Write the structure tokens for this entry.
Amino acid sequence: MNAGTSGNSPPSSKRPSAELRLVVPIWNGTLLLADVEAIDGSGPLKEAFVAPGRFAGATDNSLTALSDFNTRHSDLILQRWSEEPPLDVDSDSDSAELSVRLASGKVAPHLPVGGAVHEHIDLGAPGLTWRLRVLRHPTGVPDDYDDDEDDPIDETFVFQFWPA
């Protein structure tokens, strides 16, 4: 899905100009995002390195975030902002600021097996470098959680992009 501005109101510095919300698979404790051209094979794709002590990393066309839990799915929110968004982090959340160059300017979750392009957010311009903030928020486990039957969504990842 190509996420765009909803409604007729102009973008505001207090809210994103585009947002996409998904539930995505986590592969071996890792969430991967990539430029859609890199996923479909028409651009270079190399998994971003995450430095020791960090939970997120970026390289051209690729973003990596590490899960803090042994989960198979997480909520993912991708946002495009016209300028740096306000920092809204609670004491249980983690935050990282990075830069990434994107060939097509379209970002999607990526699974190393399959390689299909899933729903994506269109940041609007190809070949640009974007600043981004990655937020990792834990979510509560419901009281009726059954470890043998349930796969709880333990985290929400928010990727906030704005022009560099």
User: Anything to note?
Assistant: The mean pLDDT is 82. Helices lie at 36-39. Residues 17-140+153-163 form a domain with the Substrate Binding Domain Of DNAk; Chain A, domain 1 fold (CATH 2.60.34.30).
